[in-house]
Each structure stands twice: as C-alpha cells, then as structure tokens.
Amino acid sequence: MASIVQRIRDYLQSPKGRENVEKVKTKARDPHNQQRLRRLMDQWRGHRTHR
Hints:
Elements: H1 4-13, H2 15-28, H3 31-45
Helix pairs in contact: 1-2
C-alpha cells in the first residue's frame, strides 16, 4: 500500500488534482480571501483582530 505522502503526490499529478491546484491558486490571489486568511491566522495565533 502506498504511503499517504505518495498518494497525495499521485493525486496532485492527476488531471483532477492539477485542476484543483489551479482553483486554489486563483482563490489565493483574491485580496478578500487573503484578508480572511490573515484574520483566521491571527485568531489561531491568539492575536486580536482589527475590525
């Protein structure tokens, strides 16, 4: 049986995996999503958010 890392690599190299990677890259470039992620990371780290 393949290790979990190998299964992830295989998925990322598949057509469906590459399609999903492109979707994530597109969403990551969106400034609104970047702001939401920063806010989430601040909360996770225990910092107060500025609203």
